[in-house]
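dumping this here before i forget
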Amino acid sequence: MTPTGAPLSGWVIADLSSGIAGGYCTKILVDGGAEVIKVEPPGGDPLRSWSASGAAVNAGDDGALFKFLSASKRSIVADATEAVDVDVVHDLLDGADAVVWSPGTTLAEAPPFRPGALLRDHPHLTVTSITPFGLDGPWHDRPATEFTLQAWSGGIIGLGRGDADRAPVYVGGQVGAWLAGAYAAVGTMVSRRRGDADGVGELVDLSMLEVLVMCLTYYPVTYFDALGRPFRSGRSVVTPGVGTAKDGMVAVGVGTGQQWLDFCVMVGHPEWTEDKSLFRNRGHLAPVIDQWFASHTVNEIREMAAAYRLPNALIANGANLPHLDHFETRRSFVANPEAGFLQPAPPYRMQPAHLRLPEPAPSLGQHAGRGTAARQAKPVPVPHDGSESLPFDGVRILDMTAFWAGPSCTHILALLGAEVIHLESTGRLDGTRMLGAPPTEDEWWERSPIFSGLNTNKKGLTLDFQSEPGMEVLHRLISTVDVIIENFTPRVLDQTGLTFEALRNIRDDIILIRMPGFGLDGPWRDNAAFAYTIEDASGLTWMTGYRDQKPLEPYCLGDPNAGIHALAGLLLALEHRRRTGNGVAVEAAMVDAAINITAEQVIEYTAYGSLLERNGNRGPTATPQNLYRTADTDEQGGRDSWVAIAVETDEQWTLLRDALDRPGWAGDTKLRTTPGRAEHHDLIDRHLAAWCEQRRADEIVELLWPAGVPVAKVMQPHHQGDLPQLQARRFFEVVDHPVSGAARHSTLPMRFSAGPTRLHRRHAPLLGQHNVELLGDLGFTDEEISELESQGVTGRTPAGAAPTKARP
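structure:
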């Protein structure tokens, strides 16, 4: 076979979306080689005039963010009230492979172009819908914003983000929109993988709320069901976390007991190591630690932290990101092909497959009359026979990942039909096995709700591949798999000799996905990478926190964001292999994924000179936007219950004012427009805070939401399962486990109309559960398998633990 260009060349995607989520979804697809045609209403995508900093976009020009997201796309204009335009769009859809849709424009919301109608009239299409809550369920038509969705998800209060005496804070920027775009791109590629095989289209129904549940919280419902307590309660600022040095801000992370001991020695307080309680309860040490930060430079702190192997990073922002030595060395930022401002390069690098080089974004309607819509119609598909084919049936994955980022990628593959073999060793367990029962309990390593939440449907194999017999087993296994995914530090795989070239000698069409924290080259190559260090180094931390204090680490989305982007790279690699027969190596660095969802920061600074900054719970898309304390008491008996209110339009302001029964202060003419409300935000906050403080959260939501005002309760994350919307969409499925019992498990933030209807088919593997099965399939005899176990190459019990009870 011969190469056919970028992996998705030949795909035609009609883009009926507007805003960041749809724009980023189709950017991922167009970078992969697809032809994307934006079908815009006469006024164009609102992003054409958008600037997060409020910078003026010149008349006749387009905003910088639009130019980034729409590079290489085409544009046609269609008026939904004109029959000839409607026919043109239908002609385009007849020849397209997929359509990406979101509400918000008169064109997208016209009856012929609603998702159900699109699939009915064009049954060969993948129709990917991006909405706040999904297309069905009791909340499907309720108003929402990024901010209120974060509140409903449990992601604002769940990780204890913020001072206990102030409102908690949301993750700044518009991360939900970017994450939804990445998931939507994956959903589209997954569906087309199945659609190309049987010619049948389907509806991919993505919920932004469910995306945020997946990315801003850490399996809290599963944790609560399994252990009877929340993963975390109360609020405090992470210590050490972000510190202010002599010449800037830097963060040092402490995620393990050993890291805490090393940190104590580094800051000159070895006596802290004598009090074991300080590892869990050290917030009161913050003033002393702050003094230590203030007495050193950023470079001094980072050099010391590196010497102690402590996670650390600069606090990056739109001004300094492109100029950090690591990003300069790796050429992580490139010039926009039209306007020259800086923008992030794609979130993964591939060889020998390649991505499309960006071309300038289209002007509005630039490609009308150029044959864009005149395409050969797709053949009429054969209807489904009622069976549920799984998109990854027949694909075998070797999952050499641990913790959250890598397993979140491979878990989606397992849920959708791939045979995923999760590799551990008895001497080095997946770290999430430690996040559960204390080591005093029997079989504590089988009682982690986090491990369970990330690994259902997978098979479990233990193997010490640092040993010679283990390496022999690994080589045999590699010859049988289609894909290897690993997230070790770069030197680990290098030291084993398992380079892409060496792997191709074992299986020439192998796909290798590498997920290093900071990449395979550059000055930070070997730095320890945790979610929070990735957030620090990419600008996510910079945008989160109170305006009058140092920023706060989100402490969550660095991992799942890396996982979904790695999966996008894997899907491109699979398509390349399908077309060419060749294997592919993909480098999906965690930090590259992160700088893509913070793209606005560098774009705004280099295009307009505007530095985006955190602003507590206020944000760029709504005024007013904030959290307001309610009259409720929380589960600890305190006053830490809040509602989120966000007003995005002047119409919504009128609806809020009416719902409040038109109080005098709200009738001020200065508040009728967004600029006026922004100027008087403090005044609005005082009145809304006083009003909310006298009412329960449920009362506030029941009054404002039906009136058309975006509002939400700030949910404790372990109560996600109580939300009627998630219940109606069957977002949680009960999984029974032979050691830890039954617990609800989250599924995927999108529904595929062609199935599957149930995603969790098997509990997470017990340690080494499938050793005999997998080794037997490789040709090892029972005697040889027993010998490998006696040598410690395999096993079913952690090193030093009591033997596991025999099970069927």
